[in-house]
Amino acid sequence: MAEALHERQAWFHRAPARAKPLQLTLPLYTHSRRGRPLIGLSLWLYDRLARASQLPPHTWLDTATAVNRLPELKPAHLRGAFQFWDGQMDDRQLGHWVATHNRQAGVAIHEQTPVTAVAADGTLHLASGAECHYDHLINAAGPWARHLLHASQIPSSQDLDLIRGSHLILDRPCPHAYLLEVPDDHRIFFVLPWQQGTLVGTTEVREDHPPGSAPPPPQPSAAEIDYLLTAYNHYFTQPASHADIRATFAGLRPLVKSAADPSRATREYVLERHGRLTTVFGGKWTTACALARKVRQQVEQPTGRDHA
What we know:
Distance between the termini: 16 Å
Radius of gyration: 22 Å
Number of strands: 15
Number of helices: 7
Structural class: alpha+beta
């Protein structure tokens, strides 16, 4: 977590228009599964790890203050609320920003150029039939990284859990950002301001695919949409219906397989080396630059096989 919090601050400075601080509210009700002492201790530790970020420490709102400041929340059985700071980024816009800066630095980006296989000697096989040879290849294909190794007949000691996360965009304003417990579940979900609307997410559904098959583009299921609407309506005075949904979308998180329950799987990354080929398993936007530095170190090592 310390690495993620350090890298979060770096993104605030690097791309302030696309990554910025956001205050989150975590309300506590009499039926909440997590109590005030546990959450308070967790946020105290969070503040200590993030103290170099210059963001304000967490605060506690008593019942009367929470009801007054958060009128969109259902007040019945509300005990109070924690408020703390994190960051919000537009991953799509940030991706375009990174690509633009790479092009300006002289990087050649080839879009719509499918890769069918890679090799430990640095050979890249394209769907067009062409072959390209490089001093080193980085397989940073995200959810498709393991599939590419399988298609290339390269054995690996790592595997990925592909976890679908679905989201709703509601056509209504969002005056405060929230982190909330899913009713009758140990999971949490968020409600955030997003493009003049409200973003509600996310789910965690494991996508199972036959060995070696490439995952298809993810789509929210009807059950996930109902799940998120039910969770949202549990907390807010103005309920939302399907008619309030402006858009839905889903993504795949490539988590290094480490637990039977996907919500408990590690969010860390692993690097695996095969000769002139390095494969990235896992990873996320927040720690992308730290990961890139470790990939560079791996590439600069003598040819071999290593993990990070």
